[in-house]
Amino acid sequence: YIYPVLDVDFVYGAVASSNSPFCEEAKPVLVTVFPFNTKGSLKDLIYRSRWQDDWGQKYCQRSEGLPLLQVQRLGRQILEALLFLQERGFPPFGHLHSGNVIIQNGVARLTGFENTLLGFSSRIHPMVKSILPATPAVIDTICFGHVLFEMCSGYELYAPKPTARHLEDLQSYPQVIEVLDYIFNNPSEEYPTIASLAILEFFRNIDLREMR
Fold it and tell me: Which SUPFAM superfamilies does the record associate with it (predicted)?
């Protein structure tokens, strides 16, 4: 459930200086190389779009949610990818979003994890920092909640956590509402771990044929 990185390198190119458009200086540009995939990302799957369509157009309209069984299977696969990174001492990921999940042969494969090692800040961090506790690892739990919401609602959650109005759009997914409530409104006021999410009844009975 991890999408491989083939190469990471710095390319130095001449760019215009901020002081003068005629003065050029070499600046490093980070290049990350991945295998080519014609199926696109989880975001493409949610919005029924093609990977080669213009990014500014293909995600601008709300889509229908994915079938429940598909949400369960893809969600469990994403959780397994996060557990894989955790068990190997990888730092909190924080870059999980639907565009960083590649769909290959119907299987979710996590990508973008090199951003953590390269020191890039998460794009979701400014939005959720108000609900982030001191424990860094919970960023992955919060990000997973956002992805789960998007898979069912057909639109991205632009709020730290789902409100009652957001949950009205998930009335046909009562089990997902329970999972989101467990993530964001835990009575203990602590966010559940990725491991505890993976053993929820909603996810644990999914057949992970790729793990055999």
Answer: Protein kinase-like (PK-like)
